[in-house]
Amino acid sequence: MTPRPLLVAAVLVCLAGPAAAQRRAVAVTFDDLPYQAADAVLCDPAQAMALTEDFVAMLRPLDTRAAVFVNEGKVCEARRADLLPALLNVWLDAGLDMGNHTFSHINIHRNTVEAYLADVDQGAPATRAALEARGRSLVFYRHPYLFTGETAGKKAAIATGLAERGYTVAPVTIDNNDWMFAALYRDAEAAGDEALQTRIGESYVAHMAAVLDHWEPYSAELTGGREPAQVLLLHAHTLNRDWYPRIHALYQARGYRFVTLEEALTDPVYSHADDYVRANGVSWLHRWTFTEGRPIRWEPDPPPWIVEAYEARN
Fold it and tell me: What percent of the chain has a predicted confidence (pLDDT) above 70?
């Protein structure tokens, strides 16, 4: 694994380089809080708190202005009442925004609308309480898997239910499969294989550059040549704990400024109609492109060796 001082040095080198000519904006979001980790880890207060504090300590000097999305059911029932609020407060103490990602990361394609909305409601209490204790409100919602419903009826019913609950949906424009790299990274970390961790991390950074090469011009096709404010989907896991500074530097080197999710959603592109109905989860750029009747151009897959290793793992 690349030591963190070297990551910091890499960040500084990237920041010293010339920025992209176009001034770009991105809202960074992290899903699956409190953490993508084994269930036992999230029920151990010491381990869960250490992971959370390390991740937030990495983010704090970078001023990402990120929003984070919570699955309250990730913490076991026996420890949820005391441990979950403590973990959420670490993120909020760092000045981050926070939204609902359902209780159990429910799959709408395998459930009814009623069960799905019940899971949305079950995922809110601790998150809402933590925000309200600071004079803030629970506003944002992120669909698990980016699934919005595999039929028009389901999609409309879910959208209505979320609106009735006062949620603003947090769309995603830049999707990237970071979770695939992260699963392999956790395996390498558990095995103590630092060389493999470094190989995975370097491949992850290169992949993130490749997906930007795709998303930037693709997004501009929807806005007459202007790249809209982007919303980047990432996840809270040890890969991003160790390698997100390199991703952050990549964005800065390409001329991005980091904005809040609220600010990004003021971009007119987010008022675009979405007629996409399929049993999969995709970027809203694909949804809007489909709605306009133009062919979707899919983003690059992770490198074959990552895909093959992930498939073998599962």
Answer: 93
Average pLDDT, the chain: 94
Report the DSSP beta bridge partners of residue 239. Answer: none
pLDDT tens digits, residue range 101-121? 999 999 999 999 999 999 999
- The 8 Å CB, 24+ separation contacts for 126-130 are 126/70, 126/72, 126/80, 126/84, 126/85, 126/88, 127/70, 127/72, 127/88, 127/98, 127/99, 127/100, 129/85, 130/85, 130/88, 130/89, 130/92, 130/98
Tokens of 127: 């998150």
CATH of the domain at 14: 3.20.20.370
Residue 52: pLDDT over 60: yes
CA distance 232 to 189: 25
Determine how many CB atoms are found less than 10 A away from the CB of residue 69: 27
Number of domains in the chain: 1
Torsion of CA 209, 36, 303, 198, to 10 degrees: 80
State the Cα–Cα distance between residues 35 and 42, nearest whole angstrom.
8
Single pTM value for the model: 0.92
- Domain span at residue 28? 4-313
